[in-house]
Amino acid sequence: MRGTALAAATMAGVLALAGCAKDTGGSKNNASGSDGNAGSNCITAPKPPAAPAAATSSSAASGKVDGSKLKVGLAFDVGGRGDASFNDAAAAGTDRAKSDLGVPTVNESTASASESEAAKQQRLEQMAQQGLNPIVAVGFAYAQSVKAVATKYPNTKFAIVDDDSISLPNVTPLVFAEEQGSFLAGVAAAYKSKKCHVGFVGGVNTPLIQKFEAGFLQGAKAVSSKIKIEDEYLTPAGDFSGFQDPPKGNAKAAAEISRGADVVYHAAGASGKGVFDAAKQNNALAIGVDSDQYNQKTVAADKDIIITSMIKRVDVAVFEYLQAVAKGDLSTVPKRFDLKSDGVGYSTSGGKVDDIKDVLDGYKAQIVSGAIKVSDKPAK
């Protein structure tokens, strides 16, 4: 997400800037999120035209590829496997490579929140020394280390998620249009809000997570001229603890809910569990990020309040990269995983947005066609 964007990121901001809008009214929220008319008094924009079938079709599946000779290194971002978000999505990509491509070895290692650049570089260099090839670095925080190690090991292939700043022949960027998927999250939030008041919680205030924020703000405002938005971050740039601090996520989301938000979208990695807990404890709804969080075991206790997730298909990107390496043709890897390539999107698990799926797909089609341009910079 950073994601999410790693995110996130998408993931998608202004340093710890809280939306100052207040809302003292509104009826008690129905946590099922199943009432399609919940936000009818909030929505001021007409429904978009119906999406043509081609706008929502999935990319064609590739044929069987033999990856049995690959020895993969997977360098996780903060939180690692089990974060129910960005890192788990990357892990799902390598897990699929094991089952579908026959990849025999995946060596995993996880960064810590206070880790030095030297430690990151040492992790990647050890992987290269062990003969792991290719090596996938999960998150933009690895950019400097990937550049240094890839230069030193030109015969080892590297991929880096959420960074495209490295111009080396053995480095492949895996980047996403987090703002496009987050636009749809904003639309869903506005439609499902009974108070016409929603919230965003970003993990770390970085350009990547500002993309998630930007799309969410634009999407919510696109469907409602009356929407109120709470907008905050857990930590400033450089402090990556914001991606693994559920108590802080809980406190921030609870504060937004106390000010009137009844649907909260997070782009905060493992801290998102705290956001979900706060939503459930305070009879609000929430939107997940990176993975389909409705189906994540680590947040299963809160699944009833998760209405959708902004899917950032890190799993698909990692899998397609490993498949391309196995085929010996990296030209098949998309330059940017966006709505058009189904690199980002939204989940429907639980059926809580089924009643507005036509709306979400209509806006998706307009973004894909270029009729709507989604900014990657937050507009206040």
UniProtKB/TrEMBL annotation:
Is Ubl conjugation among this UniProt entry's keywords? no
Q: Name one GO cellular component term.
A: plasma membrane
Region span, Disordered:
24-65
Low complexity bias: start-end ranges: 52-62
Specify whether Membrane is a keyword of the entry.
Answer: yes
Q: Write out the entry's keywords from A to Z.
A: Cell membrane, Lipoprotein, Membrane, Signal
Superkingdom of this entry's organism? Bacteria
Subcellular location as annotated: Cell membrane
Please give the SUPFAM superfamilies that the UniProt record associates with this protein: Periplasmic binding protein-like I (SSF53822)
- Domain ABC transporter substrate-binding protein PnrA-like spans what residues? 75-374
Protein's membrane topology: Lipid-anchor
Please give the Pfam families that the UniProt record associates with this protein: Bmp
In this chain, composition skew of type Polar residues spans 26-43
Q: Which residues form the signal peptide?
A: 1-21
Protein family membership: Belongs to the BMP lipoprotein family.
Task: Report what the protein is called.
Answer: BMP family ABC transporter substrate-binding protein
